[in-house]
Design a protein that fits this description.
The complex is a heterodimer of chains A (352) and B (310). Chain A is of the alpha/beta class and 352 residues long. Chain A has 13 helices and 14 strands. Chain B starts with a helix and ends in a 16-residue tail after the last helix. The chains are: A alpha/beta (352), B alpha/beta (310).
């Protein structure tokens, strides 16, 4: 039985149901029991499960990640929430040196079933230190799993899967997805980690993307369809391990690749995707692959600069047209975004 | 203590053979701390440690054969040869792991204590670290949280005055005792002579009483001295960062020598007894080293195993 839920409600439901099912699951993070409930994702959980299972934490991202690891070794299944990826950087030693490696370096004797939710900021002038994604940093590390759902359905299913997974999982949530809606089943279910999804079928060109950029890619693809270009859009959903099988099958069909990254181009997820295609199916490519990513500068605050920073549906259209060797003028492409460009929709009134 | 000493000396003796091919940070000179602390702990209690963990591992009852085999990189090692001296583990004895990033074991141990408390278990957690560690931010973060939640954990700082070659004087302000840092986190803290095994034993006894009464955590600063170089089997008292005189002064206060004299003068032990003990320990030591040398190396199929748990 499905019904329409917001992405943030789907996250909340995944946590709620997982905590109902398994008494060893617990959650903490800065502001988890706050009145606003981490953008609505933890509302009411402390009232339901009590302060021993839903808790706030001191401003100690490094130690609290280590505490989560230690509690996992003692038999619990922690979920940590960071309101911004940027804050999690304080905990990189625990994530990369400890959590990711514990199972391997102790030869399988103990595992770390830990979920770290990292929220990607964007919009309303979040600025250089409140808007980073850094997915490729985490996707680079053996021993971690990294997921980034786009739809409310995938958000709930992937979060339940992440909580049930016996390994450390980095769960990326894009701030601009919290308010989108979609059909979400009432019951518990999982979306498999490591499997991407074709969200639009097409035979002219493969667009591979993830997280919020799936929405921009779909807007672009709708416009391109009217120009007779049929895009196949892959929503990766998991960034480590990558669903390379799905990617290569699509490339064999279309022969053209555009990657839409959610981060800086250099060393981003897109770089890995292009490499995988180049290593395995280079002869299938009719044109050079293209990557769309952020310009090589920190994320600026002022709306005009921010508008110049973030690629959008319009930029995806331009790039696809180039790969298809078709002409299009700038003024022929509509903005495909209503209202100010530094917010996702009218509900986002700032400041966070 | 003698057990730890003889094992470590054997490692030092064979190290130049270059068959132990991983960094080793020996516990020689610091044995009283491991012995006095772990004497109170059962296999249900948990210990975590750092790169200098051989003494803690052995005092906690860790398997000697699996430790030496791990140093030799063999499949029979406690980590199947994957990790070496800096990552010992023996879960059956409650030695939950050692990791060498300075400070990293502290929040993890704090988390074990937190999980233990949430699950309403009785186990005590103890974590060992050195004087350099108290300079890491994560140390203070962990103590803050442990104090906030009154966790059943004992923090043990082995202050041996050096962080590799750097003396305390270039790292910490003068006139500030390490255990006062823990006091400022509202944690019951004590300082003691880490080379006096009876004093260590009594301090740990007090610490456990405090924990059992629900007033944890507890912090112990125990002063001691590392005899050999930071990493490796040799002595390095003449390369300039410390003096032979300083070393000799601490050697006079050898934890084993001191305790042996005490036992002998109180009629608890005699020369024959010392000989018997030494012989018994050396038999086990020789067996363990032979076991390691005769064990197979891990096959290449182990390379990609256990990255994830299914």
């Amino acid at each position: 039985m499905t019904r329409e839920l917001h992405f943030n409600e789907a996250i909340r439901e995944a946590i709620d149901q997982s905590m109902e099912d398994d008494p060893s699951v617990y959650i903490y993070g800065l502001g988890v029991p706050d009145p606003k409930g981490i953008f609505g994702t933890t509302l009411g959980l402390q009232q339901k499960f009590g302060p021993d299972r839903v808790m706030d934490m001191p401003c100690s991202e490094n130690a609290m990640t280590g505490v989560a690891i230690g509690s996992a070794l003692a038999g619990l299944r922690p979920i940590i929430t960071h309101q911004r990826v940027d804050f999690a950087l304080l905990s990189m030693d625990q994530v990369v040196n400890q959590a990711a490696k514990w199972h391997y370096m102790f030869s399988g004797q103990k595992s770390v079933p830990l979920v770290i939710r990292m929220i990607i900021g964007r919009g309303w002038g979040q600025g250089p230190q409140h808007a980073q994604s850094l997915e490729s940093w985490f996707a680079h590390i053996p021993g971690l799993k990294v997921v980034a759902p786009t739809t409310p359905n995938d958000a709930k299913g992937l979060l339940i899967a992440s909580i049930r997974d016996n390994n450390p999982v980095i769960f990326f949530e894009h701030r601009w997805l919290h308010n989108i809606t979609g059909e979400v089943p009432e019951e518990r279910y999982t979306v498999p980690i490591g499997k991407g999804k074709i969200v639009m079928e097409g035979s002219d060109i493969t667009i591979v993307t993830f997280s919020y950029m799936v929405l921009e890619s779909m807007k672009a693809a709708e416009f391109l369809k009217k120009r007779g270009i049929h895009c196949e859009i892959i929503d990766l959903r998991t960034l480590r391990p990558l669903d390379t099988g799905l990617l290569l099958t699509s490339i064999r069909k279309t022969g053209r690749l555009v990657v839409v990254d959610n981060d800086w181009k250099t060393g981003g997820i897109g770089a890995e995707l292009v490499s995988v295609v180049a290593e395995n199916e280079i002869r299938c490519l009719k044109e050079s692959p293209r990557r769309i990513g952020f310009p090589e500068c920190p994320s600026p605050t002022s709306p005009v600069l921010s508008a110049a920073y973030y690629p959008r549906a319009k930029d995806i259209v331009k790039t696809v047209m180039q790969v298809m060797k078709r002409e299009i003028r700038d003024d022929e492409i509509p903005s495909m975004h209503s209202g100010p460009v530094d917010i996702p929709d009218a509900s986002f009134t700032g400041p966070f | 203590m003698l057990y730890i000493r003889l094992v470590e000396e054997e490692i030092a003796r064979v190290y130049p053979e270059q068959e132990i091919r991983c960094p080793v940070h020996l516990s020689i000179g610091q044995e009283a701390i491991a012995a006095g602390i772990c004497a109170h702990l059962s296999s249900d209690d948990i210990v975590l440690s750092n790169h200098r963990s051989h003494g803690h591992y052995l005092a906690k009852g860790g398997s000697l054969k699996r430790m030496i085999a791990e140093l030799y990189g063999r499949e029979t090692g406690c980590c199947n040869g994957k990790s070496g001296s800096m990552h010992l583990i023996d879960i059956s004895q409650g030695f939950l792991g050692a990791v060498p990033i300075v400070g990293s074991c502290i929040p993890i141990a704090t988390g074990v204590a937190f999980g233990t408390k949430l699950k309403k278990k009785d186990a005590i957690t103890a974590v060992f670290f050195g004087d350099g560690t108290v300079e890491e931010g994560v140390f203070h973060e962990s103590l803050n949280f442990a104090s906030l939640k009154k966790l059943p954990i004992i923090f043990i700082c082995e202050n041996n005055f050096f962080s590799v070659y750097s003396p305390l004087s270039v790292r910490q302000p003068p006139g500030r005792e390490i255990y006062s840092l823990a006091k400022s986190h509202n944690i019951e803290s004590f300082q003691g002579d880490g080379n006096d095994v009876l004093e260590v034993y009594q301090l740990m006894k007090k610490a456990i009483e405090i924990i059992r009464s629900g007033n944890g955590p507890v912090f112990l600063e125990l002063k001691t001295y590392r005899w050999r170089e930071h990493c490796g089997p040799y002595y390095d008292n003449n390369i300039g960062y410390r003096t032979e005189d300083e070393y000799n002064a601490w050697k006079e206060r050898c934890p084993i020598g001191t305790f042996t004299r005490y036992l002998v003068s109180n009629g608890i032990l005699n020369d024959a007894g010392i000989e018997d003990l030494t012989r018994e320990i050396m038999t086990n030591v020789e067996e363990a080293f032979a076991f390691a040398r005769e064990s197979p190396f891990p096959g290449p199929e182990l390379l990609m195993k256990d990255i994830y748990r299914s």
